[in-house]
What does this fold into?
Amino acid sequence: MTLRIFVINPNSSQAVTDHIRRELERVKRPDTELTVVNPQHGPASIESQYDRELVKPHVLDLVRRANDEGYDVAIIACFSDPGLDASREISSIPVIGIEESTLHVAAMLGHRFSPVTAFPKHVPTRDLHVRMGGFEHAYASTLITGMSVLDMEADPTTTKGRILAEARRAVAEDGAEVIVLGCAGLSGYAKDIERELGVVVLDPTAVALKVAETFADLGLRHSKIARFATPPAKEIR
Amino acid sequence: MRIFVINPNTSESVTEHVRHELERIKRPDTELTVTNPKHGPVSIESAYDEALATPGTLELVRQANDEGYDAVVLACFSDPGLDAAKEISEIPVIGIEEATLHVAAMLGHKFSITTTGRNRAPTREIHVKLRNVETAYASALVMDMPVLEMDANPEEAKARILELARKAIEEDGTEVVILGCAGLAGYAEDIERELGIVVLDPSSVGLKIAEAMVDLGVSHSKVARFATPPKKEIK
It folds into this structure.
């Protein structure tokens, strides 16, 4: 039976959406059917908590659409998982965050992982998300490319070179055993870097797609006991 | 000193309640504006509600900056949009949850937090981790009472809290009780008198911390976590 997966790029950049679609089409199973979309409104990239807050209502609309249109799983394809908990509250199908799923997989692949991020500004977010997910002991460091999300997307060669240099340093100095490409715009860059580096490099969007396929195969759903319980019905003005 | 208090839900009755209580405890030289967004949920009882309440809250944070206020208080115990608010604000933004958790950790070995429903107990666990106060967290006291009902029915709310708090002192090692909802503003004194241990009203604590920050002339570090967001197109 065909598996229908709804992938949400939470930013409003069509170029990023097309990039993700292209990469995921290459790694999906033959019986998986992908819909990859972005909201019409909201920031063009997500590089602050402010950006994350502004995308959440739009992500939630798309999660509702995925449920209404009978998809099997939804994926939030931004490495900060904006709106993940709220999405699970309103969803009866599984919602996979590319950050959460990749951190779990990374923790199974090596003693410590290092996520790659754009700017020093994002390091505290990585620290906080690692804490929230309970991964403190598997966290080595955060690596910085010094390039914006849209630049990393537009210039793969420079981006890969910077990541390689940072990753080599992290493996040597920080105890990193797994590198996580912490931005959906880096989708598809993992294999080249891994070949040069010689340690596992994870592409979170690809990992999330595989986790989504697994959840659907196993017929899994989020527990609705407390954390992801359906929100009480109320007036929203 | 001019302090801008945001009730992030859209219920004017809750805003009135918070205003009434804060007017009683503010310093004489503090001038309060207490307001709520026009759009968004009437109460905040899920991550979904939080996500929908945040954009309206952020607009009000901007307004407080534009209108020359000295500090902002976010008066909802889940601090919706707090980090984003600090990013776009020059003046200090005080989340009543964050402020109260830090104060509670100085008042007793462990604290317990009242919460509306069972679905909010995990939120409390996650937030104590985020705020680095896990070791001081005893338990969530689940009231099974919606926010608007707590606001409308003080006697019933106080009785439930008292019963849950007594049990937590016996069983969970609780030394401080936090009223984890802005709708419970003003209920602390009565409960504390009966209970015999410290009961914190987060909106009051948030206001006093705001006054303290302004007196100290401090605001958020802009090095990384609360750095101003990069300018970009927002479609």
